[in-house]
Amino acid sequence: MTDAKLREEICAVGASLYARGYTVGSAGNISARCDDGWLITPTDACLGRLDPADIAKVDAQGRHVSGARPSKTLELHRRIYENNADTRGIVHTHSTSLVALTLAGVWSDEDVLPPITPYYVMKVGHVPLVRYRRPGDPQVAAEIARRASSVRAVLLERLGPVVWERSVSHASYALEELEETARLWLMTTPRPAPLDQSAIADLCAAFGVRW
C-alpha cells in the first residue's frame, strides 16, 4: 500500500473510532508500517480530525523525516515493529471500558479478561496488563517489546489498550472486540464463566486460531 493510501486509512480509522467514542479529545495514536519506515499520528492530535498531510513520517530508525511532530509514544510503536515482522498497523486508544477495567481490577495480569465470547478468542487472544507508568515512559516500550511476538495487544493500566495487527484496520477491529468484551464483563452480574477448554479447542481447530 502506498504512503498516500496508508495516510487515508489512518485518518478513516481515527475518525471512525472517535465518532463512536473509542477515544476522546487528543488521546490515542495510530501508526502504519511502510516500505522505508512508518507513519504515525502527531502528538496531541485528535483522531477524529486528522489531516493526511500532517501525519508524521519516520525512517526505519525512528527518526522524524516529515510531517508534524510524532506522537510521544513513538518509541513504543518502534519497538513493536522491530519485534514483530508481521505487524503493519498499531492503534492505541483510551477506551472507556478498558480504562475502567484497570481501575476496577483486571481478571489477571496475564489475561485482563477471561475468554467469555468466541470472537474474543478468535480476534483478540491473551491480553496482559502493563502496570502504570507515565505516557511515553521507555520502560513501557521495553516491556511491550518483550511481548510483541507472542500477543497482539496489551492493556496499559489507567491508559488503555495498544493493539497491533496486519493492518491499521485489522488492529482497530481487534481493539473494538477487546473494548466490547470489557464492556460486557463490567456490566454483567454475576460475572459470566469463561468458555471451557473444549470450546476453545474447538474454535482453534475450526478456525486455525492460536490461543
TrEMBL record:
Superkingdom in the source lineage: Bacteria
Annotated Gene3D superfamilies: Class II aldolase/adducin N-terminal domain
Record's catalysed reaction(s): 3-dehydro-4-O-phospho-L-erythronate + H(+) = dihydroxyacetone phosphate + CO2; 3-dehydro-4-O-phospho-D-erythronate + H(+) = dihydroxyacetone phosphate + CO2
Cofactor requirements of the protein: Zn(2+)
Start and end residues of each Class II aldolase/adducin N-terminal domain: 8-186
InterPro entries reported for this sequence: Aldolase_class_II_sugar_metab, Aldolase_II/adducin_N, Aldolase_II/adducin_N_sf, OtnC
Keywords in alphabetical order: Carbohydrate metabolism, Lyase, Metal-binding, Zinc
Signal peptide: none
Keyword Phosphoprotein on entry: no
Keyword match Zinc: yes
GO CC annotation: cytosol
GO biological process: pentose catabolic process
Functional description taken from the UniProt entry: Catalyzes the decarboxylation of 3-oxo-tetronate 4-phosphate to dihydroxyacetone phosphate (DHAP) and CO(2).
Name listed for the protein in its UniProt record: 3-oxo-tetronate 4-phosphate decarboxylase
Species for this entry: Caballeronia zhejiangensis
